[in-house]
Amino acid sequence: MTTVLSKLKLPLFPVILFLTLTSFLAAAAIQLWSTSKIAEQTIDNEIRNLTKQTHTSLQLFFDNQLGRAELLIGHFASDMPLTESVFNLQRLDAADNLDRLYNSRTGSNLELLFLMLDDNQVWVDASSPFFSNLEALEALHLNRFSFGRWYLFELPVANEPQIIALRKEPMIDTESGQVIGSLVGGLVLSGNLQMINEARRYIGLPGIALRYRNNLLAESTDSALGLENHFQKIGGNVVEAFSRQGQFVVGSYFLQLGNELSELEFLTLISSDSFQQLKDSYIAKGLTLTVMILIISLITSYLIIVIAVRPLLKLIGQAKNTIYHGKDMHAEQGLINEYNTLGRTLSQLINSFHRQRASLQVVNDELEDHVDQLKRSNRELDSFAYVASHDLKSPLRGIEQLASWIEEDLGENAPTDTVQHLKLMRSRVDRMERLLDDLLTYSRVGRAKAGLTLVDTGAIVQESFAFLAPPPGFKLLCEGDFPTLNTLRVPFEQVLQNLIGNAIKHHGGEQGLIQVEVVTTDKGYQFTVTDDGPGIDPKHHDRVFGMFQTLRPRDEVEGSGIGLALVEKIVNLYGGEITLSSDGERGTRVRFTWPNEETLRKQLNE
Fold first, then answer.
1. Within-domain flag for 569
2. Which of 520, 536, 516 is nearest to 528 (CA)?
3. What range defines the domain where residue 512 resides?
4. Pick from 274, 308, 336: which residue ends a domain?
């Protein structure tokens, strides 16, 4: 994505206009969306407020219905003639008195009224004939329920369950104060159109219904709206206080019986069209604001282009022209102070650039001369190193040959001192030849160009150890997962051979352990060569990587003193690091890092 954008070359005018209009249109869209959301939220709040009021009104209505029935039942339970007939167990008189009371319930929905004795039997029933079912009433086991509370029951009538609300009041003998029976009264809620119509008129809504356990008991709707069967289509529980179903808002209100929430609920129906006017008003305001934002965005874009963009383009054109023609720049002063500062700064930069370019050209010419001289010096140095090593080796070979002839001429009669001197001469000649070879190798480090090859580092360690032909008592221990690298074989092999050779050469014993470890790092690998030799005193650690530095006389240990210097030069050349650690008493550990393929290629390309 970034690559594609970097290839686009867009003019400034359209970009500024596009970005300005896009930002303002985005702001307008957000404003319109937020207005719509605010409208929806406002409507929801209005509906919530309405539902809360409706809930309170319906609860008051229902409490009023139960309250009137409660007063009647309490009044009937204290009727003196009825109490005397129950106390005297005069069943016919009790039935007459109960019928008299039932028929006097003007303006009440009380349809169930019957007397019970302590054995749960219905003694006298004055209920409406349709609901007069002694066996069903006795099956309710009303003697288990408390006095003075309302309870909901399912009463089977004509094989159909009818939901009723019953309340039991005690009948008390005035003289003894004992409970002589129970008077039970109740409301029939199933199909109670009188109550549901009265409730709809009470709250003034288009539709209302009474439901118990998702079963519709009764409904009342405005026939002019055609909602007669709408409540039948509402399935399941209305979980929230209200929910939108189609073009209507359905409210659900569970009623309380006393202090407990019951399973009886009122459903209310409101047409959402009644809130549409409020929503349309908000949307109209949002559209008006959007049009105003669009007009403001066009005016703002024009002002930005005239005041800010044109002077900038003019300044850019002037700068390009002066750079192209190699002239000094003199920026004009304008309305915007920042552009004036920018013009002065560009003038200073461009004029300075012209001066620096002229100076840089002179420096480049001098640098090219130095590079040519350096190339000639390198070629002469290579030639000198080869010629010097060759010319110096020739007299050394002559001296060695002369020593051999003298030894042969003297034969077995040669004095012991002479033989020792001849051997010492030959060893010094060999040392000088090795020194010349090492000097030539050191001078050529990094000059030869070789390609990368796959190198098994574990195999290189084993081969180097075997090539050095250590005494039989020496062992090699390799630890770690030795990788196969795509690297420079010869320099890597030179480093390992010198480090392992030094560990063997300076060990000073017939038995020893050479340990080589490898671990992976972020940019390559870290190799560690450890021996169990006499170690190196910490005060000599700074000398070990110097040229011609040996810690023991060359007559004791053969060496040119260039090995570790060569190792350090190779490791540093390819971006690695080398360190040495020893306590000076036992063992020496040399660590060096070797780059992976990616890092090595970067080093070779620099």
1. yes
2. 516
3. 449-605
4. 274
Dihedral of CA atoms 441, 446, 449, 452 in degrees, nearest 10, equals 100
Distance of alpha carbon 321 from alpha carbon 313, whole angstroms: 12
Q: Cα–Cα distance between 61 and 57 in angstroms, integer?
A: 6
Tokens of 152: 């909901």
- Whether residue 213 lies inside any domain: the answer is yes
- Choice among 224-233, 453-462, 469-478 with the minimum mean pLDDT: 224-233
Q: Which tens digits make up the pLDDT trace of 520-568?
A: 988 889 999 999 888 887 776 676 776 545 544 444 444 455 768 888 8
Please give the tally of structural domains in the chain. Answer: 2
3-state secondary structure of 273: helix
The pLDDT tens digits of the residues spanning 280-336 come to 776 777 677 777 777 877 787 777 777 777 777 777 777 777 776 667 776 667 667
| pTM above threshold 0.70 | no
- 552 part of a folded domain: yes
DSSP assignment of 435-462 equals HHHHHHHHHTTTTS----EEEEHHHHHH
pLDDT: which is higher, 385 or 293? 293
Give domain status of residue 544, yes or no: yes
Could you give the 3-state DSSP secondary structure of residue 239? coil
Percent of residues in the chain assigned helix, strand, coil, to nearest 5: 55, 20, 25
The residue among 300, 301, 350, 307 whose CA lies nearest residue 329 is 350
Last residue of a domain, one of 256, 274, 292: 274
